Structures are given as C-alpha cells and as structure tokens.
Amino acid sequence: MDDDKKAFLKSLPYTHCYVRLNEGILRVYEDEAMQNVKQYHQHPDYAKVLYEYEHDKLALLLNEKRVFVKRDDVSLMLFKHFNFETNHYQVINMSEPTFMYDSETKKTSTIEVENAWQAIASHLYIHQLLQNQQQQLAVKKLLGDNLKQRTQIEQLIEMKDTLLKRYLKLRESKLGRIQIKLWERRS
User: Fold this and answer.
1) Dist CA 42 CA 67 (whole Å)
2) Which of 16, 123, 171, 173 is deepest in the core (most CB within 10 A)?
3) How far apart are CA 15 and CA 12, in angstroms?
C-alpha cells in the first residue's frame, strides 16, 4: 500500500470501529491514566473501540470490559459491510496480505481488494451511519428524559392548583376559618 493511503488511514477516527489486536501477550490498562497494567496471554483478535482520547489512546471493549490501549498497539479494521438490524459486520485489514473478518461466522479469510480507495470510502460511509445512529440515540434519550420531566412538572402544577383551590374553599367556610385559627395557634 502506498504512503498516501497509509497516511490517510492513520488519520481516520477509530471511535465505533473495530481494531485488530497484536498477537501474543497483549498489554492493556485498566484506567484512562494508563497506570494499572494488565496482560492477556489469550485474548480475542478483534475489539470494538468505544472512544478515543488524547489523540493516541483508545478505550476498547474487550471481554465485556472497558480497557485502554495506545493507538499504535492496534491496527484499524475498515468496515466492508454492516447490518444495522442484526449488528453483523465484516471488516478488512488493509495490510499485506489483506484479510477479512466476519462477525457472524467468526472466521478470518484472505481477500483481494481491487480498489483500496473504494474500500476506504465504503468504510467512511458505514462509519458515518454508525455515528449518526449513536447521535440519534443520544438525542432521543435526552428528549425522552425532557418529556418525562415536563409531564411530571405538569402533574405537580396541577396538584398545586388543586391544593390551592381546596385551601381557598376551606378559608371561605365557617368550619374552615375555625380550623385555620387552630393551626395558626399551634404554630
């Protein structure tokens, strides 16, 4: 692969993507500050990137745990296919030889990529769709919480108005005035 493609791939965002983990002993960190080192002798070959931080560090989902690695310790896998209904995906590695991982069959196979720029464009398109999906979920959650709070506020206002009406009716009645005087004396 030529230098232009390598430089472009290095500049791509890793968030929501999958990465290939180095073979052998894997050094990961349990905290964002990268102080607590943990070594995996056996680990999956691929992991999902949860987010990037400080331009050179990644948070990964590895064995259902969030761990942290340096960006240089993993290699980006490009999306070839992603099914949004089943979350089934196929990712390819652009190194030599090029291989593809299928999440459904959990198998890796060697493939021939005819047009590398087309594969990169396909990855960018799928990545953009994934980002849009995540943003829509965040907005829906915020709006849903806001709508719940609005209905609760409306119910509380209605309860306050009902109490105020009852209190005013109580003040107007003869027994109510006596009761209010008793309350005032007690307090």
Assistant:
1) 15
2) 123
3) 9
Q: What is the pLDDT of residues 17-56, one digit of tens each?
A: 999 888 788 889 999 888 988 888 888 888 999 999 988 8
- Model pTM score: 0.68
Q: What is the dihedral of CA 124, 128, 131, 132, to 10 degrees?
A: -170
One-letter amino acid at 116 equals A
Classify residue 43 by its DSSP letter: -
The owner of tokens 């190194």 is 95
Spatial separation of the C-alpha atoms in residues 171 and 173, rounded to whole Å: 6
Exposure b/e, 65-86, CB count within 10 A at least 16 = b: eebbbebeebebbbbbebeeee
Q: What stretch of H or E contains 142?
A: helix 116-172
Mean pLDDT over residues 91-103, rounded? Answer: 82
Q: What is the 3-state secondary structure (H, E, C) of 126-139?
A: HHHHHHHHHHHHHH
What is the residue extent of each domain of the chain? Answer: 3-135, 148-186
Exposed / middle / buried, residue 58 (Cβ in 10 Å: 0-12, 13-18, 19+): buried
